[in-house]
Amino acid sequence: MTTRRTALKTLTGTALTLPSLTESLASPMTQPDSMSAPLKGRINHSVCKWCYGKIPLDDFCKSIKEMGITSVDLTGPAEWPTLKKYGLTCAMAQGAGKGINDGFNDPKLHDELVASYEAIFPKMKEAGLTNVICFSGNRRGMSDEEGLKNCAVGLKRLMPSAENHGIVVVMELLNSKVNHKDYMCDHSAWGVNLCKAVGSENFKLLYDIYHMQIMEGDIIRTIQESNKYFAHYHTGGNPGRNEIDETQELYYPAIMKAIVDTGFKGYVAQEFIPKRDPLTSLKESVMICDV
Predict the structure, then answer these.
(1) For tag attachment on the chain, is the N or C end more exposed, with fewer CB atoms within 10 Å?
(2) pLDDT digits over 210-265, tens only?
(3) Can you give the pLDDT at residue 37?
(4) Taking Cα atoms as reference points, which of 44, 90, 47, 61 lies closest to residue 290?
(5) Residue 56 clears pLDDT 90, i.e. is over it
(6) Distance between CA atoms of 22 and 235, rounded to whole angstroms?
């Protein structure tokens, strides 16, 4: 009978004849050939500009265009003409509301939020854009049940205009443990229940992989089971929200394959804060996700 001790001895001897772990498990982005290979076209690549704030928008657009990225997330009307100049789009437009902390869970803000979103819908339609971000707001002592009900009431007011303009209002799932203390839409199940309560194909979720890894994990299963409620995806390495390479705990090739396998035709946007040369890290991350 093989014991733990004899098995370890066998493995120790075998290890001498195998390539090093670093060689055998090297990420595709570390291979020179993969860095220059054309993209496979199964993932639509986007990127969040705020992570590269020091790079002028024109220079940024030129660089990402060469990488095969076709969208810049979280930009507004003033920036859309520059994106268009370089043949880029904005797969997730900047929200028209008051920000992350003050959202649809507060009925006192509904009039203001509805008016601001209805004002941006025509501009988005003219620019050929379809997705705009929105937020739940912080709890501030409110129960999840009450907050969900309040969000549904406010969002239902928006749906006729969103449907008329062909716009999808997309609420982002964020973590309330590390980055956005007290934020309400911090679990995918809560967001899915909100989608069901609103009851329109013009309201969906932004599934941020980094944030949901912190809050609940089980990323691939969630994508497989709830993907019809997800209009958009964001990346980020955990812990730290830095590069999505082997320095962090998420294995993005498998996650991207799970997204592709659902038949998703939207965009996946890189949203990490580079610790190394920013554009090199961005290119590597695109290659990691290009399954």
Answers:
(1) N
(2) 999 999 999 999 999 999 999 999 999 999 999 999 999 999 999 999 999 999 99
(3) 75
(4) 44
(5) yes
(6) 24
**Phi and psi, residue 237, nearest 5°:** -80, 140
Mean pLDDT over 149-164 rounds to: 98
**Residue 212 exposed, middle or buried by CB count within 10 Å (0-12, 13-18, 19+):** buried
Please state the rounded mean pLDDT for residues 91-114.
95
User: CB within 8 A of 204, min separation 6: which ones?
Assistant: 168, 169, 170, 171, 195, 229, 230, 231, 232
Residues 168-189: pLDDT tens digits? 999 999 999 999 999 999 999 9
Tell me the two tokens of residue 282.
Answer: 């961005």
Q: Which domains does the chain have, with CATH numbers?
A: 43-289 (3.20.20.150)
Contact present, 28 and 245 (Cβ < 8 Å): no
Sequence-distant (6+) residues with CB within 8 A of 7 are: none
Separation of alpha carbons 129 and 131, rounded Å: 6
In angstroms, the CA 222 to CA 209 distance is: 10
Q: CA 172 to CA 164: how far, in whole Å?
A: 22
Rg (CA), the chain: 21
Gap between the Cα atoms of 118 and 110, Å rounded: 12
Residue 231 near residue 205, CB atoms below 8 Å: yes
pLDDT on residue 1: 45
Separation in Å, CA 3 to CA 6, 14, 15, 103, 209: 5, 16, 18, 59, 41
Residues 150 and 15: their CA atoms lie apart, in Å, by 59
pLDDT at position 198: 98
Q: What percent of the chain has pLDDT over 70?
A: 88
Residue 38's pLDDT is: 86
